[in-house]
Amino acid sequence: MPSGTDGAPAPDPQGSGPAARRLPERVAAIVSAKDEEERLGATLQALAQISVVDLVVVVDDGSTDGTLRVANLAGVQTVKHQANMGKAQAMTSGAKVVALLEAEEGGTYQSDNPRALLFVDADLQESAVNLDFLCVPVVAGEADMAIATLPPQKTAGGGFGFVVRKAREGIAQLGGRTMVQPLSGMRCITREAFEAALPLATGWGVEVGLTVDVLRNKGRVVEVPVELHHRVTGRGPKAQAHRLKQYRDVARALKVRGRS
Ligand SMILES: O=c1ccn([C@@H]2O[C@H](COP(=O)(O)OP(=O)(O)O[C@H]3O[C@H](CO)[C@@H](O)[C@H](O)[C@H]3O)[C@@H](O)[C@H]2O)c(=O)[nH]1
Ligand SMILES: O=C(O)[C@H](O)COP(=O)(O)O
């Protein structure tokens, strides 16, 4: 069991709470990817090594490079947005594909034992193998959503803390929890908690919106340190433009949910 769970109540296997529901035995990984041909292949190879993950869906979010080709070569399920729609829509599309595939298998998330969803960024490369630790609390029925916290990154960079601070304060006000890494996109979530949080907040507000919604729905949320390494956003003009969009989307997700 990884360390870092943060005071979530212990499971109650006999009770009528979330732990009394049937536990997810399998996990579907959903990889949102926009122009990720360089890193996606290694990420998919790593995911293939996680035994609890038996379904991988790559959502190509309007890439203009060889992202789709790399995904097809890896033999995973794919869906392509013809135009870029943003990360939240990529996650929504991925979850829909999982539901469709499960329906073809003869089940639905309501009636059977649906897979938990593992949201994965495409740029994690070989470090994605460590996401098996993130699935543990959810598969064990100890959490409804587990969010990865990343160690200091190998590559220098990173922002000035504006977006992170906005996100952290907003979640604390609306959801009553102070998150270590409120923007982390690597999350494993039960299907029930995910479906109850739909529709997702748009664009880069998706993580903040999802955290607030799951907390408000009385979901058990844990943060789990996982040895993950991704492409760090730098500090040049393009990176700052990216942060502005993040800030705008985070602020919108919080406002929609009632942040003053
Ligand atoms: O329009 C887009 C843009 C990006 N992505 C994918 O989304 C993931 C995250 O994008 P990235 O460019 O790596 O953003 P970062 O700023 O590095 O992301 C940090 O902050 C985001 C929230 O703002 C979280 O979603 C990420 O998990 C977290 O690493 C990657 O797989 C991208 O390919 C899309 O699917 N659609
Ligand atoms: O680089 C980052 O960590 C994100 O883009 C958030 O930026 P921030 O550190 O300025 O909040």
TrEMBL record:
InterPro entries: Glyco_trans_2-like, Glycosyltransferase_2, Nucleotide-diphossugar_trans. It is an enzyme of class 2 (transferase). Residues 30-97 form the Glycosyltransferase 2-like domain. The keyword Ribonucleoprotein does not apply. Its cofactor is Mg(2+); Mn(2+). It comes from the Bacteria. This is Glucosyl-3-phosphoglycerate synthase. It comes from Ornithinimicrobium faecis. The lineage of its organism: Bacteria, Bacillati, Actinomycetota, Actinomycetes, Micrococcales.
